[in-house]
Specification:
The protein has 6 helices and 9 strands. With 244 residues, it is of the alpha+beta class. α3 packs antiparallel against α4. The chain is elongated.
Length: 244
């Protein structure tokens, strides 16, 4: 198919891009209203929205170049509707998630509780193969509430590792619907000490920037053959939530 044929296809289906964008935003709004957080579906909706928006903009340019101004007007109006829907989604996220802003203030670090702080940078030399307490490494990412972790091990069977995070004083499970999916790292059986996969980014959604509270971070392993989950280690960190 030549370039002319491709541009014809893009232009002929201009209305589909608007429907895809609105469907993606509508699905995200519905998930927020129902308080359902499926990270894989959120990712699909996000990618679908961006792809549809890019195709919609391309179709608008093509219609103007070909002087099909009525089609261009329809595409432009569809884009305005999409922008309005996106603003509604952003406003709804701000309104619905605002209730978590004081989570850190309501769960201060008790006097005498020892909490580690995430590293500002990571150095593999800090990991001691004889000291299991050093095998979990967590450091800050680009924004408050966003962290990276890496786990080291001498020997693990096939399966995967993942994190569970709890507010340490009341044992409240944090970011329950997203944590496992975001922190899952596949494991292949090994008998030498080393990192299990690369760095993995995760987010603590409860709380806001600057409101630090104690978070117990647990590393769990799911065995491929046994189907059982086993906790490998845990540490208490001084953490903050991601600012909504």
């Amino acid at each position: 198919m030549n370039i002319r044929g491709i541009t014809d296809k893009i232009l002929n289906y201009w209305w589909v891009y608007t429907l895809i964008s609105l469907s993606a935003i509508g699905a995200l709004i519905l998930m927020e209203i129902k308080n359902v957080h499926l990270s894989w579906l959120e990712d699909i909706c996000g990618y679908a929205f961006m792809l549809a928006a890019a195709l919609q903009l391309t179709a608008l340019v093509i219609s103007v170049v070909r002087r099909r101004f009525l089609v261009a007007l329809c595409i432009f109006l569809g884009g305005i509707v999409n922008i309005y829907a996106f603003i509604m989604l952003a406003f709804m996220l701000w309104m619905l998630q605002g209730e978590n802003d004081d989570f850190g203030k309501r769960h201060p670090i008790p006097a005498g509780m020892v909490c580690q702080e995430p590293d500002e940078s990571f150095c593999e030399d800090d990991v001691d193969s004889t000291n299991t307490a050093s095998w979990l490494r967590i450091h800050n990412n680009t924004q408050g509430g966003i962290y990276e972790y890496q786990y080291f091990s001498k020997s693990l069977p096939d399966g995967y590792i993942y994190l569970k995070c709890y507010e340490a004083t009341e044992n409240i499970l944090l970011s329950e619907d997203r944590m496992m999916m975001r922190t899952k790292v596949n494991v292949r059986q090994h008998d030498r000490f080393g990192p299990v996969g690369g760095y993995c980014v995760f987010t603590i959604y409860e709380g806001s920037w600057g409101d630090y509270y104690p978070v117990r971070v647990e590393v769990w392993h799911h065995g491929e053959k046994t189907g059982k989950d086993q906790m490998l280690t845990s540490k208490i960190y001084k953490m903050e939530g991601w600012q909504k």
